[in-house]
Inverse folding.
């Protein structure tokens, strides 16, 4: 059974069809790329998967459960982790707090009476898990720094760490390379591969940096004008003429 | 049938006036991002100037009209834009709202204190109309309108024609339409958006001024509450236009006026429904519109593209203090508290004892604002209503069922918490400014519909409340309030550093990200609302016990709710100290003013204008000053030892560098 399966997802914005019958699957532990030129509907599709937008037609099934109409926070608890194209962080919190709050939110923990009785402090188990993830992402040296003092590249890692704390089965990354330079991007790919090796997390990567996708994803979907125009193993898809035309234009 | 038509026609002049202000609201909101609640006050100013020149100084109508509508009104708008709102362009929507709220409170009081305007201190009847013949009646077929109604309709039509002409045929109109679409794009195209925004402020202020002059004769009285109705009706109309569509906002205003006329005609004139519902129709309409009007519900406030570039709010000063200084502050703080307690309990006269008790009770009430605004980041303008629920509950249960008053106080607080949770459930989808407006509508509805009911308030006279048995004396009662304040303060601190507080922090930082890790925003907010309402209710009950009666008008009117919020956010909504200092301020400032021989109205001016500082220091002036002084002292202490910004020496970095961290923009490119 596939981990994630979308069938016939359509989304229209007052007459404009942003997504037309988009069907994709992601297998457990698989790194999948979703590419396409600007305006192809990548982020729209992403938001439909996550429940930030409501699709007009189609179904999204996760682990055999229909989640098409499920609120965002419940999807997260099922095992969806995500990062954002424009970094979304909790201003005023330290790096460690970001991961800690995610660790708590994972199962919707946090009873009010525990706060009142001062029993809400981090347990040693939680502390260990947070430190472990910080170590995995190489963030230990900034763990207690306020989030505002981090560079964009490391801020993205914090986002990833926050998503990982929820123990996702599927990690959705929305253009993680945007705003990063070449070496930072390759560093990110390295970290992603390490995460995948250690946790066995499936990753759906939405990108337009072709090099990054090629370096990372084993399978690709190509989206153009809201339609999946090609799919298959990375090398095959990148050689496809239609893809080269849609994506690379005159460069062919 | 002709009855109906008649009622419709009677409602149209009111509708026109509502529509004028609604158009002004939408215009300023779209061109400068400010939802200007102060239009209510600006309309009042123009009406007062018109009354003063015509009735007191016998000016002819035309120059008086020109002065009040075409000179005073736009000038006031220009001053506000130049001096305040221009500098708030990148400030969060909440800061702009609080600033305009402060002005709404302060401006009428300032006008009343002007030397030539002291006539406003008492009721002013029969304000002049702009129609030359005030006693003329005009027949249109079967229907009769008086001169003022005709004048209202004519000037509204003229204003609308002027506005559409301006938008369609002039350069400035075109520029305004462009700024409305995207201020930054317009600037990039080489247009001075500041100038355009100043112009639209003058224009919309003129509309408000015109509405004010026209409104007063419709009520046959120049009274501040009518301008509240005007403002709220206009907000409801603007909400009908989703705060963005001028034609829809205009139609909303007309519709509301007509609905009011029809409702007034058909409801039996002596029923509770008529007395309670008709004047409060705008409040009910606003509340229902905000909760149920499609399009408003999912809508977040206009996202300023620059908001992500702004530096984040600075952390609490305690977070950056070195250890030595922290201990010193603790010791000094403890000494101050002990000495203060000794003085309060054993030295001062019984009069000052009352004032001190009042300060303690208000500190407790203000902790409710620490929870909802400081922790949850939501603006609630109905904290006074929650406090009133607590005070009514305390009084009524003790009076009717003869229960011990300490028990009824706790039940009253629980009742307030339930009301808070019930209000939170429908209001959850609303964020920021819309939630603030919905709570304002709720407070107005509570005051005009529920408070007059016997089973709520206990009748016209305030219900008597006994003191609890062990705490009859004033000093003993002060002990009780202090004890409760400490308990509530500890509760607030525990919740803030507990999981609930972290969830709220996360939601305030980025709601999209918070939900993406599994935080249920609805649940966190309901908890925050219920806790906040419960604390306010507890404080309300205590206040009733101290004053031996549950007195709504003296303590819990809508204006107080606004004033409380403004005081607390100005001084500091994030910390317990902020709430306590705000409590001290609200209790002592009126007494200090009295001692100086000044009118207590000055407190509204003082606190109202104080709100202006909020935009500059969103953490509150208390936190701001604390951080500044901490920095200075630490620089002095560590001079020559380490370069500033060094690692881990506890040395303060003046401010974390603005990072490319964006907050609060859902959804990326889509």
């Amino acid at each position: 059974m596939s981990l994630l399966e979308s069938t016939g997802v359509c989304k229209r914005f007052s007459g404009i069809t942003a997504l037309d019958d988009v069907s994709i699957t992601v297998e457990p532990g698989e790194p999948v790329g979703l590419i396409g030129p600007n305006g192809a509907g990548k982020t729209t599709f992403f938001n439909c998967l996550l429940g930030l937008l409501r699709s007009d037609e189609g179904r999204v099934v996760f682990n055999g459960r229909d989640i098409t109409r499920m609120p965002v926070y419940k999807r997260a608890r099922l095992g969806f982790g995500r990062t954002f194209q424009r970094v979304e962080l909790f201003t005023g919190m330290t790096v460690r707090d970001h991961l800690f709050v995610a660790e708590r939110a994972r199962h919707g923990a946090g009873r009010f009476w525990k706060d009142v009785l001062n029993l809400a402090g981090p347990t040693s188990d939680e502390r260990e898990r947070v430190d472990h993830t910080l170590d995995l992402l190489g963030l230990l040296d900034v763990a207690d720094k306020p989030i505002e003092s981090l560079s964009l590249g490391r801020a993205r890692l914090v986002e990833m760490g926050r998503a990982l704390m929820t123990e996702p089965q599927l990690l959705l990354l929305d253009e993680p390379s945007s705003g990063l330079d070449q070496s930072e991007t390759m560093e990110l790919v390295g970290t992603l591969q390490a995460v995948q090796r250690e946790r066995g997390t499936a990753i759906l990567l939405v990108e337009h940096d072709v090099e990054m996708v090629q370096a990372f994803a084993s399978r690709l979907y190509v989206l153009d004008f809201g339609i999946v125009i090609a799919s298959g193993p990375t090398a095959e898809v990148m050689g496809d003429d239609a893809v080269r035309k849609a994506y690379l234009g005159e460069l062919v | 049938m002709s009855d109906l038509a008649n009622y419709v026609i009677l409602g149209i002049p009111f509708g026109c006036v509502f529509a004028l202000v609604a158009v002004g609201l939408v215009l300023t909101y779209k061109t400068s991002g400010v939802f200007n609640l102060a239009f209510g006050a600006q309309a009042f100013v123009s009406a007062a100037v018109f009354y003063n020149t015509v009735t007191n100084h016998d000016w002819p109508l035309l120059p008086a009209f020109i002065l009040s509508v075409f000179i005073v009104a736009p000038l006031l708008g220009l001053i506000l834009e130049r001096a305040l709102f221009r500098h708030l362009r990148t400030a969060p929507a909440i800061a702009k709202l609080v600033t305009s709220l402060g002005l709404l409170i302060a401006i009428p009081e300032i006008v009343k204190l002007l030397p030539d305007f002291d006539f406003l201190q008492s009721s002013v009847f029969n304000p002049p109309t702009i129609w030359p013949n005030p006693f003329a009646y005009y027949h249109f077929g079967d229907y009769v309108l008086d001169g003022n109604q005709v004048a209202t309709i004519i000037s509204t039509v003229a204003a609308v024609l002027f506005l559409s002409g301006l938008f369609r045929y002039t350069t400035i109109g075109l520029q305004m339409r462009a700024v409305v679409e995207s201020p930054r794009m317009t600037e990039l195209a080489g247009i001075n958006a500041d100038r355009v925004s100043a112009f639209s402020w003058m224009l919309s202020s003129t509309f408000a001024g015109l509405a004010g002059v026209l409104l007063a004769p419709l009520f046959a009285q120049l009274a501040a509450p009518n301008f509240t109705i005007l403002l709220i009706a206009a907000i409801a109309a603007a909400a009908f236009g989703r705060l963005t569509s001028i034609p829809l906002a205009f139609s909303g205003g007309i519709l509301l006026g007509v609905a009011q006329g029809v409702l007034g005609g058909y409801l039996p004139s002596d029923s509770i429904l008529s007395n309670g519902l008709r004047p409060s129709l705008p409040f009910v309409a606003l509340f229902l519109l905000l909760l149920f009007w499609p399009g408003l519900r999912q809508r977040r406030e206009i996202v300023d593209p620059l908001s992500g570039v702004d530096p984040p709010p600075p952390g609490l000063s305690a977070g950056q203090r070195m250890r030595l200084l922290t201990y010193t502050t603790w010791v000094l703080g403890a000494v101050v508290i002990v000495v203060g307690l000794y003085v309060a309990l054993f030295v001062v006269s019984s009069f000052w004892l009352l004032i001190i008790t009042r300060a303690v009770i208000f500190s407790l009430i203000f902790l409710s604002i620490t929870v909802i605004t400081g922790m949850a980041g939501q603006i609630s303008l109905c904290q006074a209503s929650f406090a009133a629920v607590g005070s009514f509950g305390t009084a009524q249960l003790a009076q009717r069922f003869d229960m011990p008053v300490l028990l009824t106080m706790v039940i009253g607080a629980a009742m307030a918490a339930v009301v808070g949770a019930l209000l939170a459930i429908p209001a959850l989808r609303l964020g920021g400014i819309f939630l603030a407006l919905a709570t304002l509508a709720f407070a107005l509805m509570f005051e005009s519909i529920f408070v007059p009911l016997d089973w709520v308030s206990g009748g016209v006279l305030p219900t008597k409340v006994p003191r609890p048995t062990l705490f009859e004396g004033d000093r003993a009662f002060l002990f009780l309030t202090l004890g409760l304040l400490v308990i509530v303060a500890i509760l607030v601190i525990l919740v803030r550093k507990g999981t609930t507080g972290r969830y709220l922090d996360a939601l305030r930082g980025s709601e999209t990200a918070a939900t993406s890790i599994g935080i249920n925003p609805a649940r966190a907010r309901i908890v925050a609302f219920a806790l906040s309402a419960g604390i306010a209710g507890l404080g309300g009950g205590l206040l009733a016990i101290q004053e031996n009666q549950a007195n709504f008008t003296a303590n819990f009117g809508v204006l107080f709710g606004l004033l409380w919020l403004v005081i607390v956010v100005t001084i500091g909504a994030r910390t317990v100290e902020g709430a306590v200092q705000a409590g001290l301020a609200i209790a002592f400032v009126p007494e200090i003013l009295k001692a100086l021989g000044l009118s207590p109205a000055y407190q509204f001016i003082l606190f109202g204008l104080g709100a202006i500082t909020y935009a500059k220091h969103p953490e509150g002036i208390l936190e701001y000053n604390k951080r500044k002084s901490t920095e200075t002292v630490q620089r002095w202490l560590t001079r020559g030892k380490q370069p500033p910004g060094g690692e881990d020496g506890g040395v303060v970095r003046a401010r974390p560098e603005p990072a490319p961290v964006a907050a609060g923009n859902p959804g990326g490119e889509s």
Summary: The mean pLDDT of chain A is 84. Chain A has ten helices and ten strands. The two ends of chain A are 38 Å apart (CA to CA).
